[in-house]
Amino acid sequence: MTETTNKPDRKAQLGQIIRFAMVGGVNTATFFVLYLLLHPWMPYFAAYSLAFVLAMVGSFFMNTYFTYRTRPTWKKFLLFPLTNITNYVIQSAGLYALVTWAGLNTKIAPLVAAVVAIPFTYVLSRKILIPGTSAGPGDTEQTRSASTV
Length: 149
Description:
The two termini are 26 Å apart. The relative contact order is 0.11. Helix 4 (81-100) packs antiparallel against helix 5. This protein has helices at residues 3-38, 44-67, 74-79, 81-100, 109-129, 141-145. The protein is an all-alpha fold. Helices cover 75% and strands 0% of the residues.
């Protein structure tokens, strides 16, 4: 692949990464607002869980339409929670490692762990929402269209 052919791919992927970060911010705010609205009406963990599920559904549609500009399908919808599970596992492991082994302050460590998890979540959500793609800047059009089932 020549350098000129590769540049549009990098530019498009950078746009996706920026949109992914924007959706993440909107999703986090949506989750928190939903949690605050639900909390007076139900136990805190039920409010947390319902807000989490509702925000995840919103995140799915924001990521399909806005981030990756693809069509939502039931298959993608059913696979999408894997991105949240992955994010949770990586953040939890990172939090534990940062606090226990690196001695990082417990108020800062969750933010650092969240930032570390972002690339993994991006790669997985991209693979789920745009099947047949790689997250690398050198992925080709042939790779993208190979999985049109």
